[in-house]
Structure formats: structure tokens, C-alpha cells
């Protein structure tokens, strides 16, 4: 009798354990699993997003490289283009639309002329050096290490604001956005300081500035930060032209106030005002 009672108790214990197992996870176990999943997602999603972004940027690099090859073939094969030495002459020879010219003459397809990341037509930077070396670059916000790409990136920020139905409250906010995106402003290369009062001096950095009509210009001082650097400019980049303020090399930071640009509404006005303010055309 005692043995039967013991066996019966053992059976009840086993049944009880089976019932507990059937109940599944406890609340604590579920919370632990969810926390682990959340941690993994926090780690993996940014990494995956970064890989996707890099892949897209890489696809644009490949396309720009292909476009450079196509252009070199056109430059060598077309009499109208072969004697051009700068972007102005090139646009005149191609009827203003260089990309359209290349498509029309069979050097590339229409889809090749567009950035696969930002889905906008490439801009072109072209010049021939004194030794005859030809330089061609297809520009979009992806190639932000070139001045043209850097300018396009700033314009993309500006246009994005307008597309959202808003606008920058202050021009310095555009500088901050560009700085945060890249982690630095773009360093002024020796290409732009050569032959100026700033050659061999302190490093300078380009800051974007939008005119009243939305067009973009750049100004440079020797300060790399997200600030407006007291709105002082030593070098100015306006529609492919570079101006310098020679006496600005004595200032700290380089340059003098460019706050008057807030009243300017076009490239033409900017050119005129720069000359009136003592800036000299460099190239």
C-alpha cells in the first residue's frame, strides 16, 4: 500500500512537470530573447545599411569611370571636341549638352549619363593642362572628394530642403549639414592656391554658400569646422571661376567678410560684386 502511494506520488510529480513544460517560455525568458534580438538588430541594421550605401556608391564609381573612357573616345574621335581646352569651349562645341552629344554620337547610352544613386544627370568638369594632359570628371553628390562633387552634395542638401517644403533658416545650417555628412569640410587643393597669395600657406577649406536664387558658390578660409568662420572668405569659387583676396592672407582667419553675398541673387551679380570688393580672378 505504501509503495502504491509512493508510485502514485511520483506519477503526479511527473505529470506536474509535463504540464509546466507545456506552458512554454516564462515572461522573463521572452523578455531576454526580445532584448537579445533588439541588440542584434541595433548592430546589424546600421551595418547592412552601410554596406548597401557603399555598394550603391561603388556602382556610381564604376559608371563614372566608364563615362570617362567613353568621353576620351569621343574626344579623340570628334574633330569638334579635340581642340577644346576647357569646359566653356567644350559646351560650345557640343551645343551646350555634352552628355546628349555623347549619346547622339553613339559613345554611350542614355542610362549611362545618370548617377545610379541620386538619379540625376552628371555634371562635367573638364580642362586641359599646359602640358596637354586632359582632365575629365563626371560629377554628382557621390564623388564628394572633388570640388564639383562637393558642390553637388551641398546642392543636394539644399534641394532636399525645398522638396520637403521647407528651407534653411540660416546659411550656416547648410555648412553644418555638409560637415556632419563628411566629418570634415573639403580641403582646398593646390590646384586652386597655386599662383595666389595663399600658395604654400595654411591649409584652407571650402564652405558652401547659396545665393538668393538658390545657386551655389564656395568660400574658403583656414578653419575646418561646422561654423561659418565669421563669414570670411580668402578664396571664392563662382561658377567654375576662382577669385582671391590677396591682402586676406594677413588676416586671422584668412580673408575678409563676405556677408554682403546675402544680397546677391546670381552668378553674374557675384562676379561683379567680388571685383568691386577687391577680389581678383585667378582662373
TrEMBL record:
Keywords: Membrane, Transmembrane, Transmembrane helix. The keyword Membrane applies. The keyword Hydrolase does not apply. Pfam families: N_methyl, PilJ_C. Residues 168-249 form the Pilin PilJ C-terminal domain. PANTHER family: GENERAL SECRETION PATHWAY PROTEIN G. This is Prepilin-type N-terminal cleavage/methylation domain-containing protein. It comes from Lactonifactor longoviformis DSM 17459.
Amino acid at each position: 500500500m505504501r509503495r502504491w502511494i509512493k508510485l502514485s506520488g511520483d506519477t503526479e510529480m511527473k505529470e506536474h512537470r509535463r504540464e509546466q513544460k507545456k506552458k512554454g517560455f516564462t515572461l522573463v525568458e521572452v523578455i531576454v530573447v526580445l532584448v537579445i534580438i533588439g541588440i542584434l538588430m541595433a548592430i546589424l541594421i546600421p551595418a547592412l545599411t552601410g554596406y548597401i550605401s557603399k555598394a550603391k556608391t561603388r556602382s556610381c564609381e564604376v559608371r563614372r569611370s566608364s563615362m570617362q573612357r567613353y568621353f576620351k573616345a569621343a574626344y579623340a574621335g570628334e574633330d569638334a571636341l579635340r581642340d577644346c581646352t576647357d569646359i566653356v569651349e567644350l559646351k560650345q562645341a557640343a551645343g551646350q549638352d555634352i552628355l546628349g552629344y555623347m549619346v547622339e554620337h553613339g559613345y554611350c547610352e542614355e542610362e549611362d549619363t545618370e548617377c545610379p544613386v541620386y538619379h540625376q544627370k552628371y555634371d562635367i568638369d573638364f580642362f586641359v593642362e599646359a602640358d596637354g594632359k586632359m582632365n575629365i570628371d563626371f560629377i554628382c553628390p557621390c564623388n564628394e572628394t572633388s570640388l564639383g562633387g562637393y558642390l553637388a552634395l551641398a546642392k543636394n542638401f539644399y534641394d532636399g530642403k525645398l522638396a520637403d517644403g521647407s528651407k534653411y533658416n540660416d546659411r550656416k545650417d547648410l555648412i553644418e549639414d555638409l560637415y556632419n555628412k563628411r566629418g570634415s569640410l573639403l580641403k582646398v587643393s593646390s590646384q586652386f592656391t597655386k599662383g595666389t597669395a595663399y600658395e604654400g600657406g595654411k591649409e584652407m577649406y571650402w564652405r558652401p554658400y547659396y545665393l538668393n536664387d538658390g545657386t551655389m558658390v564656395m568660400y574658403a578660409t583656414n578653419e575646418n569646422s561646422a561654423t561659418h568662420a565669421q563669414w570670411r572668405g580668402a578664396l571664392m569659387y563662382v561658377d567654375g571661376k576662382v577669385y582671391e583676396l590677396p591682402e586676406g592672407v594677413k588676416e586671422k582667419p584668412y580673408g575678409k567678410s563676405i556677408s554682403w553675398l546675402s544680397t546677391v541673387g546670381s552668378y553674374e551679380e557675384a562676379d561683379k560684386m567680388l571685383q568691386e570688393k577687391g577680389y581678383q580672378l585667378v582662373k
